[in-house]
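Posting this for the archive.
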Amino acid sequence: MNDRPNDIRKIRPEIPSAKIYESMSDEERFQNATLRPIAKLQNPLLLEVFRNYIAKHKQVFYDLSPEKRLDYIENAIHKDMKFRNSLKGILIGQFTVEEYCLYTKNSSALNKRMMNIVKERLISQMQVFERPKALEKAS
């Protein structure tokens, strides 16, 4: 029997700091109950997708100062619609049908929350985006 909703929820990591309170807005509740665990689950894929983004954009990321790298990540997520849609798909693909129905009721606000979570994840792990050794020799 197909039990996708329960199977998909079982593989999500728990985030003890992602509390749920009665006083929260629906968006904040969805963020803490659904988006944050999915982003954590998908973290290795999100990192690899961003590495690929760097490679496809001529590796300029590696020549930037740390401050400019922050801007680069922000611009990639907020201004490159193709990349942004790809990131959304990585997260939305892990929704249950019920979660997807909740998402569609306020997708605009939830998309902002989603992209901010991804941005913060990439920024907090920026040290993994160092120039690959093969590129150091070529420079």
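The helical segments are 4-10, 26-41, 43-56, 66-79, 81-92, 97-105, 107-124, 133-138. The mean pLDDT is 94.
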